[in-house]
Amino acid sequence: MKYKRKTLIRALLIAGIFSISSVSVLAQREERVRRVEEKGFPELRHGMPHMGPRMGERFDNLPHGVYRSLDMHYFHHRGIWYENCGGMFCVTQPAFGTFLPMLTAAYAVIIFEGQTYYYSNGLYYQAMDGGFVIVQPPKGIESVQPSQFIGN
Fold first, then answer.
1. Concatenated DSSP letters for 73-108?
2. How deeply is 150 buried, as exposed, middle or buried, from its count of CB atoms within 10 A (0-12, 13-18, 19+)?
3. Sign of the C-alpha dihedral, residues 112, 47, 56, 77?
4. In whole angstroms, what is the distance from residue 42 CA to residue 36 CA?
5. Which residues pair with 135 in a beta bridge?
6. Residues whose CB is less than 8 angstroms from the CB of residue 97 and which lie 6 or more positions away in sequence, other chains included
7. What is the DSSP string of 58-78?
8. By C-alpha distance, which of 25, 47, 50, 21 is closest to 34?
9. Distance CA 121, CA 61 (A)
10. Residue 125 in contact with residue 100, Cβ under 8 Å?
11. Cα–Cα distance between 117 and 55 in angstroms, integer?
């Protein structure tokens, strides 16, 4: 009798943890939507706003702690990609195939047609040895809800 009771308590605890984690994902999405509506971000895809400066904005200097792409053409910092443009640094969208050793602090995990994609600031990534690579999004992925949100 004692054994069955302990097993039942464990099963209930595990079920509670799973229900809390799904509520947490929904709560995170609702919070992102609320912040987007309050701040007026221009894009909301997969429940995530585009954060940071707009495409084409120019800066005299790069932020501290940028990652320089392996081809030495792009610079990445907190989900924003830059490239050198006439002595300044412009916000840009890097080429498909550009490698990043680790994702930014905020991204969505999307399972689509049996493949796992990571979405952040308008770009889709897929995992590969030692990091992530920017990939062209497959048709129809825009309508898929993420299975998980990571970060802010």
1. SEEEETTEEEEEETTEEEE--PPTT-EESS--S-EE
2. middle
3. negative
4. 8
5. 124
6. 133, 134, 135
7. EESSPPTTPEEPTTSSEEEET
8. 47
9. 21
10. yes
11. 22
CB 120 within 8 A of CB 131: no
| pLDDT tens track, the chain, 152 positions | 555 666 655 655 555 554 444 455 556 556 555 554 454 444 556 566 666 777 888 999 888 888 888 777 898 888 888 999 988 999 888 889 999 888 876 888 989 999 999 988 888 999 999 999 999 998 988 878 877 777 65
Q: Indicate the residue type of 135.
A: V
**Residue appearing with tokens 């916000």:** 91
- Residue 27: phi and psi, rounded to 5, are -65, -40
Amino acid sitting at position 142: E
Number of residues in the chain:
152
Closest CA to 149 of 84, 87, 105: 105
Structure tokens at 135: 């990939």
